[in-house]
Amino acid sequence: MNTIDEEAWISLFNKKDLSNWTIKFTGEDLKKNYKETFVVEDSMLRIRYDHYENFDNKFAHIYYNTPYSYYKLKFDYRFTGEQTEGGSPWNVRNSGVMLHAQSAESNDFNQNFPVSVELQLLGGLNDQNQRTTGNVCTPGTVVVMGDTLNYKHCIPSSSKTYFGDQWVHAEAIVMGGESMTFIVEKDTVLKFKSPQIGASKPNAHYEGEYWNNWGINPDTWKDKAGEIITEGYIALQAESHPIDFKNIELLDLCGCKDPKAKNYKSYYVKDDPKSCIYQ
Predict the structure, then answer these.
(1) Which candidate, 40, 165, 61, places its Cα nearest to that of 118?
(2) What is the pLDDT of residues 122-170, one digit of tens each?
(3) Which residue in 30, 121, 25, 22 sits closest to 67, CA to CA?
(4) Under a CB-based contact definition with an 8 Å cutoff, are residues 234 and 116 in contact?
(5) Among residues 143, 198, 169, which one has the least CA distance to residue 72?
(6) Three-class DSSP category at 91
(7) Spacing of C-alpha 193 from chain mean position
(8) Rounded to 5 degrees, what angle do the CA atoms 38, 71, 105 make?
(9) Distance, CA of 117 to CA of 139 (rounded, Å)
(10) DSSP notation for 139-198
(11) I want to staple 269 with a disulfide (CB 3.0 to 4.6 A). Which of 92, 97, 216, 253 is the partner?
């Protein structure tokens, strides 16, 4: 393969420790790994509740420290065991990967979820036949489905249901503020456009975001309603059910598009002239 076509995937997780990741729990200081929830074991990044007596609404996210705009993301995940005591019924075999998220540092102290676009991960339950994964949820955001703003907080994908503790492979193709595509086990299951900040107040089509319920200060975001989100952080979610992640890799689609440069890649989508290297 020509080197200009060879894909330069980045491993976001080094399989040894949590270097280059930042933890933020609801009601806890930045970087505190409350009750050792985030664990590195057997080359996996594991979310565990072994030291909990009760979940106590300790929602958490672990953020990769570099923001991205145009990229492909791929990873494997599996749900394991039972939900910890005190978790909400809707969080059984429920987690997610937050895309275009605000930074860990910018979260309010008691904030449950970052303003972001969530690639929602769901596992099948014994009492229902269909439970899609690779859905989109929108804490503090709105997306366009087709040509229409869709104000529904979670929009289901077309995926099959994955039961048990099996590994599932998922991917996201993120095109800045243009579009996002979710892929599960090589099947494209969801596409949408124009991720943007949600309104701070209800309107004729929209009941409003749960800003206060989520611990998000609406005053911080009210002047940004409708603003297209073009970049942000990637964060893994912890919301009461154990889950494992592995093989977390990213292909940056933003780079030097000048064929005369040493670091030109044919697959770049977004040009970054400042990154070009000529000698």
Answers:
(1) 61
(2) 999 976 678 999 999 999 999 999 999 998 889 999 999 999 999 999 9
(3) 22
(4) no
(5) 169
(6) helix
(7) 16
(8) 45
(9) 7
(10) TTEEEEETTEEE--SEE--SPPP--TT--EEEEEEEETTTEEEEEETTEEEEEEEEEEEP
(11) 253
Q: Give the type of residue at 181.
A: T
Give 256: exposed, middle or buried? Use CB within 10 Å, 0-12, 13-18, 19+: buried
pTM, two decimals, is 0.96
Number of neighbours of residue 2 by Cβ within 10 angstroms: 6
Q: Are the beta carbons of 179 and 190 closer than 8 angstroms?
A: no
**Apex 238 CA angle, 161 and 128, nearest 5:** 25
Q: Compute the distance between CA of residue 20 and CA of residue 236 in angstroms, rounded to an integer.
A: 13
Domain positions in the chain are: 10-275
Q: Which two tokens stand for residue 51?
A: 């030291």
The pLDDT of residue 131 is: 93
How high is the pLDDT of residue 151?
A: 87
- Domain 10-275 sits in CATH at 2.60.120.560
Report how far residue 66's alpha carbon sits from residue 153's, in angstroms, rounded to the nearest whole number. Answer: 26
Q: How far apart are CA 68 and CA 180, in angstroms?
A: 13
Residues in Cβ contact with 147 at an 8 Å cutoff, skipping those fewer than 6 apart:
none
Average pLDDT, whole number, for the chain? 94
* Alpha-carbon separation of residue 88 from 164, 185, 239, 240 (angstroms): 19, 28, 9, 8
